[in-house]
Specification:
With 282 residues, the chain is an alpha+beta fold. Helices cover 37% and strands 26% of the residues. The radius of gyration is 20 Å and the shape is globular.
C-alpha cells in the first residue's frame, strides 16, 4: 500500500504529518504555528466526519479558524486555556456556518490542541483525538476520549488498550459542529526538561500502543520517528484503515533554558518594580 505520508510545516522541536491510509479521501488535518519572539507554539489536529465531503470541509474549517485567531494575536492577550476555549468554540461556529445549505452531509470534527508558552503547556480537546504527555519515555497522562468506549473503560467493562477494537469506539459523545456548543476539556502542566507530547487521531492510537508512542516520541530524530509511526499505523490498518495524523513535540534544552530565563527576568522585574514603589519595604 502507498503510505503517502505528507508532512506539515515544521516548527522548532515539532514534527507533524498525516496519511490517507485505506481511505479514498483525507479527513484529518493539522497545523503547527510558532512565534520566534516569544518561542510560543500552537499545535492543532482535527479529524473530520459527516459524510459526502463534509469531513474534509470540517477539518479544514478547524485549521482555517486556528490560523485566523493566531494571526489576530489573541493568544498574546488571553490566558492559554481561555484562548484554546475560544479556538474550539470559534471552530464549532465555523463548522455550523459551513453546514448551512448542505444536503445529506453535516460537517463535524474532533479537535486536540496544545499551546506551549513560557514554562507552561496547556491543551484542550473535544472528541477522540488524543494528547499524550511523556517524561523520558514514561506516560504522565493522556486525554480521555469523549466516546462510549471510554465510558466502558471508566465503568471497568473494557481495558483501555482494547478501546481501538471495541464496537462502540466510533460512537462519540462530543464533537465540533453539532447542534449545541461543545463542552471543551482542558489540561495544564508546568514544562520540564525531557517532556514530550504526541497529538494524534484515532487512526494512530487504535494501531499503536502507548508504549510504542512513548518510545517514538523520545527518539532523537523526530522526523524519522514520525514517519515510522505513521507507516506502522497505515500498515496495520490495512486496505480499510482510517486516515492517520500525528504531531510530536519535545521540550529540549534550548526551549527549557529560554523559558527559565524569561521567567527569571520577569521575577526580577517584578521585584524591582515593587522596590521602586516601596512595596514590602520597612
Amino acid at each position: 500500500m502507498d503510505q503517502g505520508i505528507e508532512e506539515a510545516q515544521a516548527v522548532p522541536s515539532v514534527v507533524a504529518g498525516r496519511a490517507r491510509g485505506g481511505r479514498a479521501t483525507q479527513q484529518d488535518a493539522c497545523i503547527c504555528l510558532h512565534d520566534p519572539a516569544t518561542d510560543t507554539r500552537l499545535l492543532v489536529l482535527a479529524d473530520g466526519m459527516g459524510g459526502d465531503g463534509a469531513g474534509e470541509l470540517a477539518s479544514a474549517g478547524v485549521i482555517e479558524v486556528t490560523h485566523r485567531l493566531w494571526q489576530q494575536g489573541l493568544w498574546r492577550e488571553q490566558p492559554g486555556p481561555l484562548f484554546l476555549e475560544s479556538l474550539c468554540q470559534s471552530a464549532h461556529a465555523e463548522l455550523r456556518r459551513r453546514g448551512e445549505g448542505l444536503i445529506g452531509a453535516e460537517p463535524h470534527s474532533t479537535v486536540v490542541t496544545l499551546l506551549i508558552r513560557g514554562r507552561r503547556a496547556c491543551w484542550a480537546h473535544v472528541g477522540d483525538s488524543r494528547l499524550y504527555r511523556f517524561q523520558r519515555g514514561r506516560l504522565l497522562g493522556r486525554t480521555q476520549d469523549h466516546s462510549v468506549a471510554q465510558m466502558k473503560v471508566a465503568r471497568g467493562e473494557l481495558e483501555a488498550e482494547a478501546m481501538g477494537e471495541d464496537i462502540d469506539q466510533h460512537m462519540l459523545l462530543r464533537g465540533l459542529g453539532g447542534p449545541h456548543p461543545p463542552q471543551v476539556e482542558h489540561g495544564l502542566a508546568v514544562l520540564r526538561l525531557g517532556q514530550s507530547f504526541a497529538l494524534c487521531s484515532d487512526g494512530v492510537w487504535e494501531r499503536l500502543s502507548t508504549v510504542e508512542l512513548a518510545r517514538l516520541a523520545r527518539r532523537r530524530n523526530q522526523r524519522e520517528a514520525l514517519h515510522e509511526a505513521l507507516a506502522r499505523a497505515v500498515e496495520r490498518g490495512g486496505v480499510d484503515g482510517d486516515n492517520v495524523s500525528l504531531i510530536f513535540a519535545r521540550i529540549g534544552w534550548m526551549q527549557w533554558l529560554r523559558a527559565r530565563s524569561r521567567g527569571l527576568w520577569k521575577r526580577l522585574a517584578r521585584r524591582r518594580m515593587a522596590g521602586d514603589l516601596g512595596i514590602g519595604q520597612v
